[in-house]
Every structure is written in C-alpha cells, then in structure tokens.
Amino acid sequence: MIKIGCCGFPVNKKKYFENLLLVELQSIFYNIPTKIETVEKWRKEAPKKFEFSLKASQVITHEISSSTYKRMKNKFGNTKNYGHFKNTREVFEAWEKTKKVAKILKSKIVVFQCPPSFKESSKNIENIKNFFNSIESKNFTFAVELRSEWKEKTVEKICSELNLVHCIDPFKQKPVYGNLNYFRLHGKNGYNLKYNYIESDLKELLNFCDKGENYVLFNNLNMFSNALHFKSLLKNEKRS
C-alpha cells in the first residue's frame, strides 16, 4: 500500500481534500493550538478516510538556538530545557500537548524531525532512549528523522530497541528499521526544496516502495503537483 501526501497544506484545504488522503501536519511543530476546538475543526473538515500524520513539537527535538523558534508564539517553562529529547519537564509537557492533538486527529504516525545539531553521542542516545521508554506508545507509530550523520548500526539498534520507524529521504539513504516505510522528500542534490521531481524520479521512487505500508510525503516547493503526478503514475502502474 502506498499513501501519498504533502508536508503541510500547499493549497487550500478543500482542493487538497479533493485530491489527496494524507497530510503531515506541520503547524504544531511550531505552535501547538491552545484551543481544542481548533483541532476538532481540522478533523471535522477532513473526509472520514483522510489521514493526518503529525510532526511533533520542536520543543521535543530542537534546542532554543534553532531558527525555527522565530515562529513560536507561546514559549513556556525554561527554554534552556528545550530539545534533543532532554529529560526535562518542558520536553515531556510538549509531548503531552502533541499527544493530545494526535488523539483528536486520530493520527497513527507521529514524526520526530531531529535537527542537524542532534549528533550521535552517548548523551543523545541516552536522551532518546529515556524519552521513548517513558512516553505512551499505544495506538501510535513513532518515526524518527535524523539529519546528521549517525552510524547505521547505531540507528538500527536504537530503532529496534524502541520500535521506531527510521524516517528517511529514499533518494539519499535506505531505512535501516521499521514496520513501514515513511519517506520525506526534500528534493535531490541535498536539501533542495526548489527541486521539481520529474517522471523518471517518480518511477525510481515507486521502486523504493515495498509490498508493505509506504507513506510518501513530498516536502519541496512543488510538493502538490509532484504528489499528484506520483498519484497518477501509481494509478497507471496498477492498470498495466
């Protein structure tokens, strides 16, 4: 099974809902809604079969020095305790808020996007193990995207121990562990958001997908048109 979507809504929701059945919600990474009614409205607006995956709050993964915090409206607690899965009240509070949104949206997958500063080290390994061993995992699949160089053996060991999906861009590396594939596509030749995937790229992408469950999320400037192109290609493949 291949599920196709975008990282965020690149077009108005009505048009998006008419064409795709999956989105990775980005907004709570920056700001978690303070009103439950807002989240309930998102779920109500979407078709019944529509799926929200969720990018977890940056407070869990990113330290306060990250430029992403320029978009955060309501900081809480001691900002020095933010990020890198630290064993702090602020990090676990951010998880509780993320979890609350995920449950309302009936999200199956929560994505933890780690910054390049989250490098392989004994402290970071300790943090990530403590975090995932401490939080509720029932009804959720957790996917972790590591944006710095980690040894494959280390990633495989952590993911297998904690039952995490290794989230990757398949044009850059192969997943080393997970009960499904979760692909985030950031453009080719590095993180190149201006890249426009052509048909030969999308055919290659199709080959990256296996017979199991595959989530394919486009995260480039042309994400919507590329997602529709891939959807069309997939439909034609099924017919042939």
Biggest pleated sheet: 8 strands, parallel
Instruction: Indicate the proportion of strand residues.
Output: 15-25%
Shape: globular
Residue stretches low in confidence (pLDDT < 50, at least 5 long) are none
- Return the CATH topology: TIM Barrel
Helix content: 25-40%
CATH architecture: Alpha-Beta Barrel
- The CATH homologous superfamily is called Protein of unknown function UPF0759
Q: Helices and strands, in N-to-C order? A: EHEHHEHHEHEHEEHEH
User: What's the pLDDT, averaged over the residues?
Assistant: 95
What radius of gyration results from the CA coordinates? 17 Å
Number of domains: 1
CATH class value: Alpha Beta
- Count of separate DSSP helical elements: 9
Walk me through the topology.
Blueprint lengths: L1 E6 L5 H7 L2 E4 L1 H4 L5 H10 L5 E5 L2 H4 L27 H17 L3 E5 L8 H13 L6 E5 L6 H11 L2 E2 L14 E5 L13 H10 L5 E5 L4 H17 L1
Parallel strand pairs: 1-2, 1-8, 2-3, 3-4, 4-5, 5-6, 7-8
Description:
With 240 residues, the chain is of the alpha/beta class. The protein has a single domain (2-239), classed as TIM Barrel (Alpha-Beta Barrel). The chain is 39% helix and 15% strand. It has helices spanning 13-19, 27-30, 36-45, 58-61, 89-105, 122-134, 152-162, 199-208, 223-239; strands spanning 2-7, 22-25, 51-55, 109-113, 141-145, 165-166, 181-185, 214-218. It has an eight-stranded parallel beta sheet with strand order 6-5-4-3-2-1-8-7. Helix 7 links the parallel strand 5 and strand 6. Helix 8 crosses helix 9. It starts with a strand and ends with a helix. The model has no long low-confidence stretch (mean pLDDT 95).
